[in-house]
């Protein structure tokens, strides 16, 4: 059996479980929706006042990519919690004594998280449209490509870390400690062009700064410029590195 | 070398060792274990918690890499070809392997498909296993609604879905009520009797090892300290305990009976002569004849085998049932 069909078997199982208790994906949407409703209108005013890096009339196109990153950082990044649960229940061990490829055990789970995040993205974009988001279709479609890369990277990383950490009590604070700075440094709320030099430098050391800038530029209607390309390159490279790391951790025998 | 296929061991372990470090301290979980398992045996690792049973099982099932030593399982080296071993064995972990929100049949079908079995075959096998393990009617139930015994049988069904010739069961009856335990034992025996499956289990229950296993490997502190059939182990270690109650002079009886062949110890308490002897049945025949000839007033006779707990006590100086608590 090929790695792809093995991955699909695992994906189907995980997806079925998600559909049986869809609470988490729905709860995950709640926070970004609050940001849209309670912070979005303020940003529209700020943009109207003319702020560097926040073009007037583009407030929603500026704001929505940041919220998508936020969805990723609080969804797929915490997906490793499920592998800790599977370790505890013995499900993961049961699958590891079958001849199925170790990579498929990871890939099937990552696929589930990616599909969930893509579905959340569709919902969030629809809600944002209600609030006033207007963007060209190719730009909107590119959001899904970026989101897929983010989901693959974060989910693979999280599953790998879950196998290392093996306890929810350590895992959740660890990820929170990483997620909040990553989120703030990406500049999801206000443009990093406002930042003092030191903050701008630190921000450029984190991947999501490039990704969110690329996504915004795509929504402004520029699909091939250097900012979009840099964002895409960083997103894909991050996904690849995380997937490789996750795969290595899944292939280890002594755990 | 032998030409008989049946005599080729299905498991051969040589010098298996596993050490790991916890907080800078080196723990030797398994310290140079050697043993063989023949096809069609029900064999058990008996020992207290922490004896190294599960660690050894996890090495044999490719979940852990041994620090030293080697093992072949169904003819395949666990280090050289772990995937080959996985294809040939079933494994049921102590914790089980089910998610409460999954349903019985869908997990059985998935598990079969993970072994590369085509979908229509997988569906048929899932149904067969449900019949075989008394899970009929539960196929579409979420695991969390099953009883402990039903869930355990589902775990075992998951380990058998690809019809392996060797299945590892780690503490199969932990947490089950007595009725479910004896049901489970019956299922395990049938597995061997009807399908010829070799069953390798670990247990810290003496009655389980005694009732189920053809052969026992007693494990303590990471080593196999004794092996044999339950009866041989008990005979070898302590001999049988024979009590004779007399109407007359017990001290005279003691003097007469002290010539008993295979005698270990003889003692009198009140009207009872208690003796332990190797091969108690043979000793008993001699005792009855001799008592008759010497005209002793024999009222009753009792012969008792030592329990595996006596064996464990003799081997390690501590009781397995004390260790358990």
Automatic annotation (TrEMBL), chain A:
Keywords: Antibiotic resistance, Cell membrane, Membrane, Transmembrane, Transmembrane helix, Transport. It is a multi-pass membrane protein. It comes from the Bacteria. The keyword Transmembrane helix applies. GO terms for cellular component: ATP-binding cassette (ABC) transporter complex. Residues 23-253 form the ABC transmembrane type-2 domain. It is found in: Cell membrane; Membrane. The keyword Membrane applies. One of its GO terms (molecular function) is ABC-type transporter activity. GO terms for biological process: response to antibiotic. PROSITE patterns: ABC_TM2 (PS51012). The chain crosses the membrane at residues 23-43, 63-85, 115-133, 139-165, 177-199, 227-251. Belongs to the ABC-2 integral membrane protein family. This is Transport permease protein. It comes from Microbispora oryzae.
